[in-house]
UniProtKB/TrEMBL annotation:
Organism: Beggiatoa alba B18LD
Annotated Gene Ontology cellular component terms: outer membrane
Transmembrane stretches, start-end: none
Family matches, as InterPro entries: OMP/PagP_B-barrel, OMPW
Signal peptide, first to last residue: 1-26
Domain of life: Bacteria
GO BP, one annotated term: transmembrane transport
Keywords for the protein's UniProt record, in alphabetical order: Signal
Protein name, as recorded: Outer membrane protein W
Length: 233
């Protein structure tokens, strides 16, 4: 989507352009920063064709896609030094729909085929470039654990494959990269813009009447773009 191509230059331009006029809320070792954001989760999804035990191999034209979602997140950053902090990122769970993409699967079960909720906490080590300034860009790298729960098949998949049971999606452990900026609006509150790229993948499995036991590997790899407010303790 176009927004993820625009956010990085906007963050950089905003950081440089607003330094001269903004009030200052400096950060230092021992400070705790708390941010709340509205976020868009935009998967850069890719999957292979599904494996079918009834066929004894992959079924051509059965790849899937994952849609985007909106939710809220909150993070807590503890400043280990004036420049280095560690962030604990906690998102509210988001709901994503998996849809048929390949021609064969889209014929058997068009549209959304699986619904799932996702919870992806992350721990990120950050470097804050200008801790004393009113505009403070930062970059981070860390790891995320993604838990899939409340998985459901849609009537389209259930009817198209002659009944579906035993759906499961494996949890995922991967890396996350981050770039963001805090912009002070007074001595207690700052605005925040933040973009992350998360390495998330899963294996989906279920049993069906038409294809037997089915499994497929899906790389979700979302861009997570957020805007919000924060404070310092």
């Amino acid at each position: 989507m176009n927004i993820k191509k625009q956010v990085l230059p906007l963050l950089i331009a905003g950081s440089l352009g607003m330094i001269a006029s903004a009030p200052a809320l400096a950060i230092d070792q021992g400070d705790i920063l708390v941010r709340g954001r509205i976020i868009n989760i935009s998967p850069d999804a890719d999957s292979g064709d599904v494996y079918s035990s009834a066929v004894g191999g992959n079924v051509a034209g059965t790849s899937v896609d994952v849609d985007d979602a909106w939710t809220l997140d909150i993070d807590f950053t503890y400043m280990l030094t004036k420049y280095v902090g560690v962030e604990l990122l906690l998102d509210l769970s988001s709901q994503h729909n998996v849809s048929s993409k390949g021609e064969t699967l889209n014929t058997l079960a068009p549209g959304d085929i699986i619904e799932t909720r996702v919870l992806p906490p992350a721990l990120i080590l950050q470097y804050h470039l200008l801790p004393d300034g009113p505009v403070r860009p930062y970059a981070g790298f860390g790891f995320n654990y993604t838990y899939f729960f409340d998985e459901k098949v849609t009537s389209s998949l259930d009817n198209g494959l002659g009944g579906v049971s035993g759906l499961s999606l494996d949890s995922s452990f991967g890396w996350v990269a981050q770039l963001g900026v805090d912009y002070d609006i007074n001595e207690n509150v700052f605005l925040n813009a933040d973009v992350k790229y998360m390495d998330i993948s899963t294996t989906a499995e279920f049993d069906s009447g038409a294809l037997g036991h089915v499994s497929t590997d899906v790389d979700i790899n979302p861009w997570v773009i957020g805007f919000g407010v924060g404070t310092k303790f």
